Amino acid sequence: MTLLVAITGWQVEPWIDRFRRLLPERGIAVLGEPFDRRAVDYAVAWKHPPGSLAGLPNLGAVFSLGAGVDHLLSDPKLPDVPIARVVDSDLTNRMSEYVVMHCLMLLRQQRRYADRQAKRLWLDDKDQRAAADLRIGIMGMGVLGKDAAAKLRVMGFDVAGWSRSGADLDGVVGYAGAENLPAFLARTDVLVVLLPLTPETRGIVNGALLDGLARDGVLGGPALINAGRGGLQVEEEILDRLDRGSLKHAVLDVFNAEPLAADSRFWTHPGVTVTPHNAAMSDPDAIGRLVVRQIRRLEQGLPLENAVDPRRGY
Amino acid sequence: MTLLVAITGWQVEPWIDRFRRLLPERGIAVLGEPFDRRAVDYAVAWKHPPGSLAGLPNLGAVFSLGAGVDHLLSDPKLPDVPIARVVDSDLTNRMSEYVVMHCLMLLRQQRRYADRQAKRLWLDDKDQRAAADLRIGIMGMGVLGKDAAAKLRVMGFDVAGWSRSGADLDGVVGYAGAENLPAFLARTDVLVVLLPLTPETRGIVNGALLDGLARDGVLGGPALINAGRGGLQVEEEILDRLDRGSLKHAVLDVFNAEPLAADSRFWTHPGVTVTPHNAAMSDPDAIGRLVVRQIRRLEQGLPLENAVDPRRGY
Fold first, then answer.
1. Is B28 an 8 Å CB contact of chain A?
2. Does A130 contact B283 at a Cβ distance shorter than 8 Å?
3. Whole-number pLDDT of residue B284
4. What H or E segment, with its residue span, contains residue B251?
5. Cβ–Cβ gap B117/A274 under 8 Å
6. DSSP readout, chain A?
7. Quick check: B275 contacting A, CB < 8 Å?
8. Cis peptide before A199, with omega less than 30 degrees from 0?
9. If you measure CA to CA, which chain B residue comes closest to A274?
């Protein structure tokens, strides 16, 4: 009985130590080192090399170590076994911290005041608007979107959500499907993207979508916050709309290629805030415990929690 | 029947226009221009020149145009008439926006990531802590403190409050009075000051108080947010603790002298965020309507709402 750790982009050693501690009865194997492929019954993965999970005849399930599973589902050689993702209240809280902080920074013009501080300028120009004046639109109303929407509402923002189902939440109007996307965008000053990356959503944050955002808002132009996946966005078109001034600000935690290239214009564009895909990094120990909990469930014949539907893509 | 507008530091014309519109039956008088002192039955004030409200024989009440009344109560020639202050849900919401935004920016190390963006550094060093790991302590649990505490709790922070009464709120432990101040400070990583300015609270945010803050928190040192009154703080001692590194960051919206002098070290200190007393600027139209509502109540023989107790100081 061996757990295979298939990780790239993150430090692998802490994960090995963690699972050794949490699963003392089990062997831990790592990609790149020799191991008995027949012994592997479970795998934990984060951006595994495509194909590296194939040829494991006794594999029972694969666990994504993050909320996203696009890194798994895009592997054409992904074995036909149950896939589960991490749904961790800690991760959800952290995503909402990020979303609420950046919505407040946009509302309160924090970058402008930081700039004024650097110039020693005391200007209390009384142009501060209230949260109720700013219309936030959240694309993707899963666990993360719902939690962010509820917390933005508590802060007083005017919030709507767009999703497949379009369900209303308390005080948050839901817009459903492609036919209602234009109406949703037209009432949105700050677009918060928390969609999963699927074949349908890839590249959805493009110039045409940004052109549909509200032009009559209190910030003098719309803003974008993408804390979902880099593959959702068409980066050249975002830069184009920023250059033209039709998009006032973009807060980007995710990119087509990560780490973001040193020569990317996103780093230096005055209308862009870059964060290094850290909007919602969960506590690795908590993730480890969640994976072990699922393995114990399977051992007891119980179904997986948070199983992924490969056809839906999340 | 004349309303006297006694304002310094703000533009006076918009206030005159506003009250002319809201009280068409009434004369509007302004300091610095001739007016009949016997006709004045009400005054609205913000940082009026001390003594300027004396010698108004028919004055019935004075309304502060902000939440604070220290600018009124510190006038030795303040007439002995009822004083009322503005308690406006819009102002309360805005103060909570400010407090939650700055607590999140401290938690999420937003200044550090902005600095890294400027250097084109992609470092996802996984040292992000969750809101539950950060202990916020609010001094002053009036309307503003309670609202901020509730919203910080929703975001997941570990919140306590210190006040005269020490009442607990939902999930927020209350500490009462001077004898419990050391225990409150010892469990506080981020101190949020929302106290009124009274003879008892003047200078309360001094070096000794800052030295009492927690040293074992997740940010590597305590932080201060003062969005109350400048007179609460001893500025040289705050700078001294920042210089020594025993205070990690100070977010200051208020100062001993405003506007902040161009040569103040606060502007340029790397551990200081300066905002120009704009944490909670209410909508002037809303304030005007609240004042008119009180005048109408007095005309109908009803008691003032939000009357100030001069002995208590707020």
1. no
2. yes
3. 83
4. strand B249-252
5. yes
6. -EEEEEE-SS-SHHHHHHHHHH-TTSEEEETTS---GGGEEEEEEESPPTTTT-S-TT--EEEESSS--HHHHT-TT--SS-EE----HHHHHHHHHHHHHHHHHHHTTHHHHHHHHHTT-----S-PPPGGG-EEEEE--SHHHHHHHHHHHHTT-EEEEEESS---BTTBEEEETGGGHHHHHHT-SEEEE-PPP-TTTTT-BSHHHHHTS-SSSTTSS-EEEE-S-GGGB-HHHHHHHHHHTSS-EEEES--SSSSPPTT-TTTT-TTEEE--S-TTPPPHHHHHHHHHHHHHHHHTTPPPSSB--TTTT-
7. yes
8. no
9. B117
Token readout for B129 is 């802590």
Mean residue pLDDT across chain B: 94
Closest chain A C-alpha to B123 CA, distance in angstroms: 6
Interface test with B, best of A8, A12, A97, A256 (most B CBs within 10 A): A97
For residue A252, what are its two tokens? 């980007």
Low-confidence ranges of chain B (pLDDT < 50): none
What integer pLDDT is reported at residue B167 of this predicted model? 86
A108 with B101: Cβ contact below 8 A: yes
ipTM: 0.86
- Residues in chain A with CB shorter than 8 Å from the CB of B156 are 93, 97
The burial class, CB within 10 Å (0-12 / 13-18 / 19+), for B21 is exposed
Domains defined for chain B, CATH in brackets:
2-88+282-299 (3.40.50.720), 89-274 (3.40.50.720)
Instruction: State the catalytic residue, choosing from B135, B229, B241, B249.
Output: B229
Q: Given CB atoms, is B94 within the 8 Å cutoff of chain A?
A: yes
What is the full DSSP assignment across A226-243?
Answer: E-S-GGGB-HHHHHHHHH
CB contacts, 8 Å: B273 with chain A? 114, 117
Name the strand (E) or helix (H) holding B151.
Answer: helix B143-154
Chain A residue with the nearest C-alpha to that of B103:
A101
Q: Do B114 and A273 touch (CB under 8 A)?
A: yes
Is A277 near chain B, with CB under 8 Å? yes
Query: Three-class SS of residue B174?
Result: strand
By Cβ distance, the residue of B101, B131, B276 closest to A104 is: B101
From B107, which residue of chain A is nearest by alpha-carbon distance?
A: A97
| Beta carbons of B124 and A281 less than 8 Å apart | yes
Question: What pLDDT is attached to residue A264?
Answer: 98
Give per-residue pLDDT as tens, A84-101.
988 888 889 999 999 999
Choose, from A85, A102, A229, A249, the residue flagged as catalytic.
Answer: A229
Q: Are strands B272-274 and B249-252 parallel, antiparallel or unpaired?
A: parallel
Residue B294 and residue A142 in contact, taking contact as beta carbons nearer than 8 Å: no
Gap from A104 CA to chain B (nearest CA, Å): 6
pLDDT digits (tens, 9 = 90+) for A186-243: 999 999 999 999 999 999 999 999 999 999 999 999 999 999 999 999 999 999 999 9
CB atoms < 10 A from the CB of B279, how many?
27
pLDDT for residue A180: 97
pLDDT tens readout for residues A164-186? 889 888 889 999 999 999 999 99
